[in-house]
Fold these 3 entries.
Entry 1:
Amino acid sequence: MSKKKIGLGFGLIVAAIIGLSLVVGGQSGPNQKVIKTKNATNKIIVGASATPHAEILEQAKPLLKEKGYDLEIKVFQDFVLPNKALAEKELDANYFQHIPYLDKEIKDKHYDFVNAGAIHLEKMAFYSKSVKKVSEVKDGATILVSNSQTDWGRVITMLQDAGLVKVKEGTNLVEATFDDIAENPKNLKFKYDIDPAIMTTTYENNEGDLIAINANFAENIGLNPEKDGVIVEGDNSPYANVIAARTEDKDSEKIKTLVEVLHSDEIKAFIKEKWNGTISVVD
């Protein structure tokens, strides 16, 4: 074969390769299928507490996959870093906090966040190794509460509903502190400087007469608010745990899809079956 024919053949091969690359790259006619690769916008990164938030999100992974999203869960061990990471755009959303805590974080730290949807309620309860019912609470009893100030109004409301204290008239119960207690007929002694994560330890060591423990921590030592609680939070509590997102993303498809999946019948059934009332779903 002559050099001229070889050169012509090679040119045709190069032309064919270029033509094929144009089709794959999307430069073809309207009837050609364009091959696309998945990009980063199909990933949803959510910061969460280990229990129950990350467990719930794990159940949501296949449901989100069906809708075209890959869910990445980043587990946090504290209540400060998830909001910081969200503000710094390391996360698309976070799922660890209740509404009053989110509101306080927005107010105190000027986060530009929104509540994208309430998902579940972790019931707070007072537990005791010595007290079985409210009538057994003795004069001068010690009440242990965590140092999470956004939960103070929550436990004070529970104590007032149980008839143990009464707050000053006109007090916003969600924002109430122990200074707002106007009547304390049993001279209860309040200690509220304990980290939430070690409230279960104070219970196991029998350090107080009534000890307020959130459901996600109580579950770790086998306590159920409905079965074991002396005083139990009502279902009408405003302390639902929510998906928080940056305000700029509140209408984004990925955030809407995340909340939609977490409100699905499949996720509700999982929560009800796994936690048996310790954690309740929010519609």
Entry 2:
Amino acid sequence: MKVYKFGGASVKDAQSVRNVLTVLSSQGFEECLLVVSAMGKTTNALEKVVEIYFKNENPQAALREVKQMHKEIAESLFPQGHSVFDEISLFFDDIESFLRRNKSPNYNFVYDQVVACGELISSKILSEFLTLEGLTNQWLDARDFIKTDATYREGQVDWGETEKKIASLDRNKSYVTQGFIGSDDNNFTVTLGREGSDYSAAIFAYCLEAEAMTIWKDVPGVMTGDPRKFSGVKLLKHISYEEAIEMAYYGASVIHPKTLQPLKQKNIPFFVKSFLSPQEPGTKVGISEQNEYTESYILKEGQVLMRISTKDFSFIAEEHLSLIFTALAKFRIKISLMQNSAISLALCLEDKYQNIENLRNELCGNFAVEITKEVSLYTIRNADVKDLDRLYSGKKVLLEQLSKNTVQMVIQ
């Protein structure tokens, strides 16, 4: 069985949905499971709905805009009176009903119940359109198959339960389902982290023991740098799982960080290809004698540089590190880069949930804390360390770290 993942850009409008049909017609849709993201910027729009709701304002107008966008896309794809229009209305009725009845003050819980509807609606539209065009498929609710704990907005997969559920699928059929979402023991929706649809595809691929997994993007494959940020980048045709994991960890946006581990465990080949040019080979990630180790550039923006030092000039010891890491875990702040000296610790942090000030307040009782916001982590993989001046040229470097094959710098 094959697993394909189509992201938001690939289903952003009616023409894009038709292009998915073109891709599937050329690549084959037999014994295939499609994982679909929300359409275009729907996730951002539904996030706004949640923000308005928590300001005790009426989110109806914002919700109507999202509904109208999906209705217009459906009107371009389906004949008048098709059942998909009622399905779309039901999804939005569910959001409105939930927001009316909700008593939970937990922002992350409410976020997951509302924002997940983007994937449900887009996958329903795509499934019905493929059926209309003669590609038989079954629509699945991913929440019935991917089971997680109750860590809302970043659910941890219960692999035992998830494998049991997915094993029940008939591998001779074709399916359309959602990325990004699962459910907890109480069947509440839990999302898997922003941009988590790639991870969903990998979960299904692992549990189905898929012959291959392909992510369809608006780029030719994995490049030596984001073409929107770097000039002269090239396509990497073959890279190892390990290299892809490193690139994802350092912030390469084309691959979700959690995607590779499940695939590597079962040696499932992973392709990144362009939905604009589906016949092109793209990038193959896996075991190969042709793996490329070319100098590559990754820019992870919107980071925070935090410098922590002891107030009495004592060494940063194990008990200090324990306090710091406990606070980081408490506020769900991730470390992108860490460097320590005798009396200080420098951390480049990803503050996804805007908790950096809470972290500062937590640490200030025991440490001197200095923060620099809106910095970027610039990583060069397989760097030519004999020519470092070229890499540093024109940059204000706040922190740097060099290893055998990797140069990293925090820059403003």
Entry 3:
Amino acid sequence: MIIYHGSDMVVDRPALLASKRTLDFGTGFYTTTSKNQAISFSQKVMLRNGSQNKSVSMYEINFEKIKNTLEVLSFNDPNGEWLDFVFSNRQGIYNGKQYDVVIGAVADDTIYRVFSLYEAGLLDREETLKRLKIRKFYDQVNFCTEKALTCLHYIGQLDLDTEEDI
């Protein structure tokens, strides 16, 4: 299977970098199975970093091998467990089990608005989950450990002018 990483540079050697922001699934190397999501994210990173470049790096992975050899947390949909996990990571208070890989829905800009209302205490858990169920979600696959990063095999980048593999 091919997964994508959107950035303002080619990332042929993924690394675990400390983020200045608290992210949905904690520290790690974030990827997605959606080419369009990676392209959109590369644009956001370019703008956020004041860069002139955007890039989508591609990797081949074997999900079955990952599931059989690593500690994987997978959310099939944005349910209560997902909400609690993302909320505690974004608050910087998660202290539960450490996973090698976390897979699940990404709280994009639209979803983030609902999530912000929940964080501010303006929506309760039930109403938050109700509002999230009507949203379209992209996925994210976060590689949280060095061991997990060894499962990523860089295969090239996407030419964003033609959206073809190069």
